[in-house]
Amino acid sequence: MTKRVFSAFKPTGRLTLGNLLGAIMPAVRLQDEADCVHAVADLHALTIRHDPERLRARTREAATLLLACGLDRSLVYVQSRVPAHTELAYLLESTAHFGEMRRMIQFREKSARQEEVRLSLLTYPALMAADILLHRADAVPVGEDQRQHVELTRDLALRFNRLYGEVFTVPEAVRPRVAARVMDLSAPTSKMGKSDGSSAGTIYLLDPPADLGRKVMRAVTDSGTEVAYDPEGKPGVSNLLTVLAACSDRPVESLSYGSYGALKRDTAEAVAETLRPVQERYAELSADQAELSRVLEGGAALAAERVGGLLAEAREAIGLA
Ligand code: TYM
């Protein structure tokens, strides 16, 4: 049977090189062998303080970018346009336990940084599980930071199946070959994140070419001069090697450099070459907003149609009239 792939992207900020290398590029490759569905997870963006207008704009931008990055042979839609996601999420909240939700690393980290923690930040992995399970996905391309949530999805699927009957397909996370965790260029011990505002260490997919080069050239490197892949001892250099390997589709081991400067120059060029076609395609797609709306509405309608059966099965199994 054809493999089914699902993945999603949360429009809390602009999409980054981390999103591209960790999840979008692996998903683009999977299109040749699988039936692929991708969503912009706008409901997930409500888990932290947000601005409604900005969310709407970021959602559309993210959807356009997914298509521009090459996911144009996948079904792409905006999560909130398909109400089955929230309905199944409630059934999964009623399958999950408070203790396991509270233990999620992302919840612990993000809640520790805020005074007012939205309840949806705690329950969000149940919504993510619903996203995946609704599509009976076998494979979920994600970066390292989302693996724990995919593990939880597996646990919830198995528990539900055991308690109420075999309804869900148990999915597996798909790791990228390299770049499962792209680090911030100016703080290479932290993940490159997409929080809004311009960070010197984050490369956004829509950064103007001049900014891309500048950000890479200013990346923090490590003491010493030797270019070696050693994420613990040389996080800055290792991150650049990872980015270069992923952007040029070569293994990290094949890269050999005599100086940090040369490594940075080649990395800057590889990033620019990777993003140039994405930005060109983004400009083309954005020029026809009516067509974009048609694609996204069509995607949502098709997704709703596809997931209806699974939702009905889950409702029936759990005992809803
Ligand atoms: P989000 O929006 O934070 O990230 C989207 C995808 O990009 C990956 N990623 C990275 N990979 C490598 N290096 C980085 N620095 C980096 N930053 C982000 C993430 O691992 C992810 O694969 N909850 C999810 C969105 C979501 C989802 C889903 C994902 C909602 N429903 C169902 C998969 C399946 C999230 O916040 O990802």
Key descriptive features of the protein:
two-stranded parallel ribbon, mainly alpha, Rossmann fold, 5 strands, 11 helices, Tyrosyl-Transfer RNA Synthetase, binds tryptophanyl-5'AMP, 3-stranded parallel beta sheet, 321 residues
Task: Tell me about this structure.
With 321 residues, the protein is mostly helical. The protein has 2 domains: 4-179 and 288-318, Rossmann fold (3-Layer(aba) Sandwich); 209-284, Tyrosyl-Transfer RNA Synthetase, CATH 1.10.240.10. The chain contains 11 helices and 5 strands; from the N terminus they run E-H-E-H-E-H-H-H-H-E-H-E-H-H-H-H. It has a 3-stranded parallel beta sheet with strand order 1-2-3. Helix 2 (52-68) packs across helix 10 and helix 3 (84-93) runs parallel beside helix 11. The two termini are 32 Å apart. The mean pLDDT is 96.
Task: Give a short summary of the structure.
With 321 residues, this protein is mainly alpha-helical. It is built from eleven helices and five strands.
